[in-house]
Design a protein that fits this description.
By secondary structure, the protein is mostly helical. It has helices spanning 10-25, 27-52, 56-81, 93-126, 133-142, 156-164, 168-194, 205-214, 227-237, 261-276, 279-284, 290-305, 307-318, 320-323, 328-341, 344-357, 366-374, 379-391, 401-412, 420-444; strands at 84-87, 220-223, 251-253, 256-258. It has one domain (8-444).
Length: 446
């Protein structure tokens, strides 16, 4: 692996700094120019890798990963955004906890992105009279991240492990405890906070009467039953991996096997879903493409500018002096903190590969991966990496794809969402990090 100069991190750090400060310091300029800035920094890094470092392999591989990421995110955004679900009740702490619990389970069945986009608008409508930023933040913690820990369908790192040879049921059996601990603690914290927020039973009598008069709605209103078919198509397309199915055609570009069959299926599903969507669903959800545009442009810059950061992290982790200290507890925190600021999928793959190499196993061989997953001596390592890659995704907005998308949808609904550093210092460090620390303590020191 070629050397990575520290100054190459400047575009990535600069972009993160602008994402954090732009909406606060110069909001009008940022709103008009964030796409140009993200694309310019991304293209600059792309050209540097290709023309100066002659590393077109890394550049093409990153572009392919970005394209796959944004196609899946976009398809699920359309499917979830044109599916109208309304619960004809007023939000209370108990009802919110139940809905978040459902979201946590759903996240492991249809992925954190799918669950987030299906439930975020019903969650906002349920709390329409009392919605606050913390509602959305805890939704991101639970539904957009922690909930996806229970199956390989929940989050990209776990799906990569499944494709490489980690048995499907292994995830459920060995990650159920951190899933229960993290979700249970976050739901408890949310309930304690939410019960202090006035809810319908505390409204004045006149207000309650108005709600009854205006609320002549069914208990559950659903539009978009055909979206369920499109959702299944999008989820099944995720399995169309050319490394697993050799019949899928690929292009060979700069040493990278690239196939866009999966992405074409997702794009067609999104188009079909949008064309068959009901007017009630689109207007009821206030559906526009603005949130997905914002995420697509910002993550174009993030994916490309973080190439040096990923390479530098991989080089540091491969240092023998570092590798010998990678105990399960250390791997949990290293994987988690890297995943909070970098792409969690390559972080997971790099650290699993490194840990397997330390036990003379090859990450590219299915039998070796299965052995690594079930050997009592190495299973805690894989559990630590898997837990860290998923649980820490909510620590920042860029830790997982749905985070920014949920934030953008909430902001479009008029919710005053915290910006990057406000989110970290006001919420994730205060509520999420102590939960992650407690999970670490219960898993590795009891």
């Amino acid at each position: 692996m070629p050397e990575v100069a520290p100054w190459l991190l400047l575009p990535f750090v600069s972009l993160l700094g602008l994402i954090a400060s732009g909406p606060l310091v110069f909001p009008h300029f940022w709103e008009r120019n964030y796409a140009r800035i993200a694309v310019a920094l991304g293209v600059l890094m792309l050209l540097y890798y290709g023309l100066a470092r002659h590393d077109w392999h890394m550049a093409v591989e990153t572009l392919a990963e970005y394209f796959s990421f944004v196609m899946l995110l976009g398809a699920l955004y359309v499917v979830g955004g044109t599916m109208y679900l309304n619960i004809g009740l007023q939000g209370t702490p108990q009802r919110n906890v139940i809905l978040l619990m459902i979201g946590a389970v759903l996240a492991s069945l249809i992925g954190t992105t799918g669950a987030s986009l299906v439930l975020i608008r019903p969650f906002i409508r349920l709390n329409d009279e009392r919605i606050k930023p913390y509602h959305i933040v805890f939704f991101i913690f639970i539904v957009s991240n922690v909930g996806g820990l229970l199956t390989p369908l929940g989050d990209p790192p776990l799906f990569i492990g499944f494709l490489r040879g980690v048995p499907f049921i292994w995830t459920t059996l060995h990650l159920a405890l951190p899933w229960l601990l993290a979700n249970g603690l976050l739901l408890l914290i949310f309930w304690l906070i939410d019960r202090r927020n006035p809810y319908p039973s505390r409204f004045s009598r006149e207000e309650q009467e108005r709600i009854r008069r205006e609320g002549q709605l069914p208990l559950l209103e659903f539009h978009g039953r055909y979206n369920l078919i499109w959702l299944v198509i999008v989820l099944l397309s995720v399995f169309m991996d050319p490394q697993q199915f050799r019949w899928i055609p690929t292009l060979h570009i700069a040493g990278v096997h690239v196939s866009f069959v999966r992405e074409a299926v997702q794009l067609l599903a999104a188009w079909g879903c949008y064309r068959t969507a009901t007017r009630r669903a689109i207007t009821g959800n206030h559906f526009t493409f603005a949130p997905i545009y914002e995420v697509a442009f910002l993550f174009f810059g993030i994916f490309l500018t973080m190439m040096p950061a990923l390479q530098l992290a991989a080089r540091l982790a491969a240092d023998p002096a570092v590798a010998t200290r990678l105990t399960p507890a250390v791997l949990y925190w290293v994987t988690g903190l890297l995943s909070a600021f970098l792409d969690n999928a390559p972080t997971y793959a790099s650290l699993v590969s490194l840990s397997m190499a330390g036990h003379e196993l090859d990450f590219s061989k299915v039998a070796a991966v299965a052995s690594f997953a079930y050997d009592p001596a190495t299973m805690p390592l894989l559990r630590a990496i898997s837990s860290g890659a998923v649980l820490f995704g909510g620590l920042t907005y860029i830790g997982n794809g749905p985070n920014f998308l949920v934030r953008a949808i909430a902001r479009d609904e008029g919710i005053d969402m915290p910006v990057f550093f406000q989110y970290i210092f006001r919420y994730s460090l205060v509520y999420l990090l102590p939960v992650l620390a407690l999970v670490s303590g219960l898993l590795y020191w009891l």
